[in-house]
Each structure stands twice: as structure tokens, then as C-alpha cells.
Design goal:
The chain has 369 residues and is of the alpha+beta class. It has helices at residues 269-272, 304-309, 319-367, and strands at residues 5-7, 17-19, 26-31, 38-42, 46-50, 58-62, 68-73, 79-84, 89-93, 98-103, 110-115, 121-126, 131-135, 140-145, 152-157, 163-168, 173-177, 183-187, 194-199, 205-210, 214-219, 224-230, 236-241, 247-252, 257-261. Belongs to the WD repeat POC1 family.
Length: 369
């Protein structure tokens, strides 16, 4: 592995930028939301912030006492988070390049750390076989997910911020709800370690990269495998969707970076739910469960505001019954979304079939003497 960064332009005939500065292998890169900064981490234990232009100017600072495995900007670009083999997760100020605080409950190397879309939470994945969810403001570990049977190699937030997905050396991908901490989906489709994953911006799909040399695209709404992609001649080590979801790129130990076109229909789930989902209220420690706010389906009963404006005498209910009812409401919500999305997909399929029949009829008319 060399110690350089390559920034590629997608426009034809454009030249790539080659940045040098790190003293050892570069392990991770991430663009800021604005695209005006590029952060990189390295085995040389440093993080560099680059201005991605011809000059390739950068600022370097000693971030950790061991290899930096992950770097990720917050959605506002004001801070970024790093993860390291020194077993810590650290948060930094972008413009001052100043250390803010450290999260240090992992007991083995931390492979990955990411901000939630709203910047309130941080999730980290470690060789201690756990995924940890952190509250940024309180700096407390909200919950530890311990279902993986091996090192956890990668973790990321769903675009909605309500779920996380993690990849592991146990060949699995798991999806959890960050509000209830329930395991929602479990996939064991690869024959070797899963090294990376990426959510499509729509939230409908998840792509994974594995040491079995394949990429797999999963339909999260239907909970099934859509495609298996073969291209790399060795382990596929990383994969990521573009910000629009039109493309995705993968890298492997064969020293190849491949850019793929997504080529699948996307249903915007934001259009399905007309009532916005309120943010979950997180507990301050891992020992307390968070409050979970479920949306009120449109057209069913009174509005949230009208219910809240009329004070009612509290009714005492057993905690187990309350939890069960909340879970049922949540599942009904998911079913409602799923049915709506399936209806949209059916409409798309019917439109395509109609277009195919019309095209076939035109061809027959042209060929008929």
C-alpha cells in the first residue's frame, strides 16, 4: 500500500489529483458535506485535512497513538469523528483542528465510527465484537449491540437516522433500530467476511463488499437479495454510493477501483409518510431504554396536536403491555409503508409493461408491408 491519495474527476478527459503527505498507508478518506475539504487517516497515526485542488495543500495533526481506521464528517461539516487501533473514538473541530473529546469504552481496535444524519449520535464498530451507540452531547454510551460473533468491521446510519447497519467478520450484516435497539434484519449471504456497506440515499437499498470478492445489493423493504456483482479478483474491501445514488464505487485488494451505475428504480419513502417522524429521545446511559415516538398515520384519528392540547388523566398500564403496544404500532407503521411502496412499484411495473407493448406494436406496424 502506498501513502498517497487520489482524487478522481468523473468528467471525461479530466486529470486526477495525486496528494502526498502521509508517511504510511492511507486507511480512510471522507469528503466534507460541502466538498471543500477532504479528510484522510493513516497508519502513521495522523489525520490530514486537504483542500482538493491542484495545489493539494493539507494540514496534519497527530490524532491517535495507533493506526487511524476511520474518519467521518458531521452533516454540518463543523466537526469530524475518528476511530483508531488505540481503542478510542475521538471528535474534532474541523476549522480549528482542535480535539474536543474522546469516547473510550471499547476494549479492542475500533474499525469505524460515524455521525448520525442529524449529528446527535455517533456509532462505532470494534474488534471487541460490539457496536456502540453514543450520545454526542452527554458523551455517554446509550447502548451496546453484542449480537455479532466476530470482529465488527463497519457500521453506518440509515439516511433516516432511525436504524444502523453493521458488517462483521462472521460473514453477516445486521440492522438495528436505534430507538428500540431491536434487531430488525439479519443477512448471512456472503461466504467470507463483510468488509464494508453503504445505504442508498433513498434508504431502500444496502450494498455490501466482502472478502469473497463479491458485492451484494439488498432490498431492505422486502428483506431480500437483489443482485450479486462479480468484478474484483480478490477481497472487495470498500464500497459506497454516490450522494445521488446514481452510481456506486468499490475498491479491492486487486488494486482496482470500480465505478458502477446503479440501474434500479427508486421509491422515495419520504413521500409515503406524510407525517414527519419526531426525533427519538435518548436516555443518558446505557442502562435506561429510550422513549420511542411513533408517527400518527395520516387520516387515522385526531392529530398529534389536538391530542396533546387536551389534558387527560394518566392511565396506569404495566410496562410490558406498554412496550408490546408500542411494538405493535411500530410494526403497523412499517406494514403501512411497505404496502404503499409496493403499490408504487406495481404502478411503475405496469407503466413499463404498457410502454413495452406500445413499442412492440410500433415495431410490428413498421415491419408489416
Amino acid at each position: 500500500m502506498d501513502s498517497c491519495l487520489m482524487v478522481w474527476h468523473m468528467k471525461p478527459q479530466s486529470r486526477a489529483y495525486r496528494f502526498t503527505g502521509h508517511k504510511d498507508a492511507v486507511t480512510c478518506v471522507n469528503f466534507s458535506p460541502s466538498g471543500h475539504l477532504l479528510a484522510s487517516g493513516s497508519r502513521d497515526k495522523t489525520v490530514r485535512l486537504w483542500v482538493p485542488n491542484v495545489k493539494g495543500e493539507s494540514t496534519s495533526f497527530r490524532a491517535h497513538t495507533a493506526t487511524v481506521r476511520s474518519v467521518h464528517f458531521c452533516s454540518d461539516g463543523q466537526s469530524f469523528v475518528t476511530a483508531s487501533d488505540d481503542k478510542t473514538v475521538k471528535v474534532w473541530s474541523t476549522h480549528r483542528q482542535k480535539f474536543l473529546f474522546s469516547l473510550s469504552q471499547h476494549i479492542n481496535w475500533v474499525r469505524c465510527a460515524k455521525f448520525s444524519p442529524d449529528g446527535r449520535l455517533i456509532v462505532s464498530a470494534s474488534d471487541d465484537k460490539t457496536v456502540k451507540l453514543w450520545d454526542k452531547s452527554s458523551r455517554e454510551c446509550v447502548h451496546s449491540y453484542c449480537e455479532h460473533g466476530g470482529f465488527v468491521t463497519y457500521v453506518d446510519f440509515h439516511p433516516s437516522g432511525t436504524c444502523i447497519a453493521a458488517a462483521g467478520m462472521d460473514n453477516t450484516v445486521k440492522v438495528w433500530d436505534v430507538r428500540t435497539h431491536r434487531l430488525l434484519q439479519h443477512y448471512q449471504l456472503h461466504s467470507a467476511a463483510v468488509n464494508a456497506l453503504s445505504f442508498h440515499p433513498s434508504g431502500s437499498y444496502l450494498i455490501t463488499a466482502s472478502s469473497d470478492s463479491t458485492l451484494k445489493i439488498l432490498d431492505l423493504m422486502e428483506g431480500r437479495l437483489l443482485y450479486t456483482l462479480h468484478g474484483h479478483q480478490g477481497p472487495a474491501t470498500t464500497v459506497a454510493f454516490s450522494r445521488t445514488g446514481e452510481y456506486f464505487a468499490s475498491g479491492g485488494s486487486d488494486e482496482q477501483v470500480m465505478v458502477w451505475k446503479s440501474n434500479f428504480d427508486v421509491v422515495d419513502h419520504g413521500e409515503v409518510m406524510k407525517v414527519p417522524r419526531p426525533p427519538a429521545t435518548l436516555a443518558s446511559s446505557a442502562g435506561n431504554l429510550p422513549e420511542v415516538d411513533f408517527p400518527v398515520p395520516s387520516g387515522r384519528g385526531r392529530s398529534v396536536e389536538s391530542v396533546q392540547s387536551q389534558p387527560q388523566e394518566p392511565v396506569s398500564m404495566p410496562q410490558t403491555l406498554t412496550s408490546t403496544l408500542e411494538h405493535i404500532v411500530g410494526q403497523l407503521d412499517v406494514l403501512t409503508q411497505t404496502v404503499s411502496i409496493l403499490e408504487q412499484r406495481l404502478t411503475l411495473t405496469e407503466d413499463k409493461l404498457k410502454q413495452c407493448l406500445e413499442n412492440q406494436q410500433l415495431i410490428m406496424q413498421r415491419t408489416t408491408p
